[in-house]
């Protein structure tokens, strides 16, 4: 039987990143993916003739430029097209335009509140300070604060030096920020409801928190840490859809001698004498390897793919307690033309970016109230985009693709599984909201793909449809992600590793967990690390 140096369980972007780095280091690597295509949540699919959908993830910013350079992704066709801004459409018929340029944003803020325009400089400075503290940690393995190993002590010293660069007051403010609600944080700077609604968006995307929930401020920071062409906080579209990222990764992997087996789901991870030795596929066949690296989330890896008796009971208990609640849905819509939004002038440049219809934090919180009650939001928050305003390669001439990312959609409806009728009603609520702001929109709809947490779990393998493979709350970050004592991509089972977004630094199409996991695996090959003592105290 052929044996590989490494099996990557799951062909999402992090799994492909790990595979690329290992293959470039000379290891014999195979990626095993249950779907007939690779990409996980970063895919481009033609589900309606002539139209390409980014049918899960839909914008790019967080993907690390270091990874793009290392793996030569531009050589394999990856191109990121930045967009300049967007708009929040108000119920009273007005709008707040948003821009990538700071001064343009400031002038638009002044139209709504001169005081808020002045506060925007201070807000941007303070948030950027938090970003500068966190960004260098994204591509580093978090230290174990209970360990006396030299590398952990060195990483703790690195954190200490970064804290030393801050004043006493700045340290206090940083800790407050990580634990505050975004609503309370924005109240310290701004007065305009629509400005606060615009700035709160990044704090609720993909998370089972509302804008008034403690800890939501950090989620905003997580989304601010990306860049496009060196512009920190900027966002863009992958030309050809988000699948362009994973297709470039696939080509980079294969150019380095890596192998991809699509359409072959993993049934179990094989464990022998406390060590991962391969996987059993859904058809009963086996693949053997010296190590298994799971790109699945932590619950799917350890609660569904490994026998519980192979793991310490305390570890299993922590994995079960890991918060991974789904809160999002997605509509992908084929349009016969460009919608006409009554609040925007014809050919408005804002149409090329993100459009929002929730003009106050209170409306956001009421949408979250529905989620808490086990219902989809009747007045949902939408992050709506028309990527084909910038990238015409995704549709026939004159036609357009609209992406609607929706908060909130619960993993179950009042405790019961989603039905097709409920899915369709959820989709209709989203379309009805767009129609309110763009009369005649429904007449442009040629096709709509509706995705609830049910579809995200069944098709992509995201437990409960959580797009981050685990919530980004302060208790699940750094050396606590996914669980204390198991935050360095290793597991209690020798040669079984994690490389997905359940590991540090978390979710989004970032690639950092995959790159960091590869670095630890290669380091371990050179100098094996015995982690048994770490799990003995869990």
Shape: globular
Query: How many β-strands, per DSSP?
Result: 22
Instruction: Classify the secondary structure makeup into a structural class.
Output: alpha/beta
| Order of strands in the sheet with most strands | 8-7-18-19-20-17-21
Q: What portion of residues is helical? A: 25-40%
Short key terms for the protein model shown above:
seven-stranded mixed β-sheet, five-stranded parallel β-sheet, alpha/beta, 17 helices, 22 strands, globular
Question: How is this structure best described in words?
Answer:
The protein is α/β, with parallel strands linked by helices. Helices cover 36% and strands 18% of the residues. It is built from 17 helices and 22 strands. The longest helix is centred in the first third of the chain and has 21 residues. The chain is globular and about 65 Å long. The relative contact order is 0.18. The C terminus is likely disordered.
List the helices and strands and how they pair.
Elements: E1 3-4, E2 6-9, H1 13-24, E3 29-33, E4 44-48, E5 51-54, H2 65-70, E6 80-82, E7 85-89, E8 95-99, H3 102-112, H4 114-134, H5 150-164, H6 168-179, H7 182-187, H8 193-204, H9 216-224, E9 227-228, E10 231-232, E11 236-238, H10 243-255, E12 259-262, E13 266-272, E14 275-281, E15 286-289, E16 292-294, H11 298-304, H12 313-321, E17 328-335, E18 354-356, H13 361-372, E19 381-385, E20 400-407, H14 420-437, E21 445-451, H15 453-460, E22 496-498, H16 512-526, H17 532-536
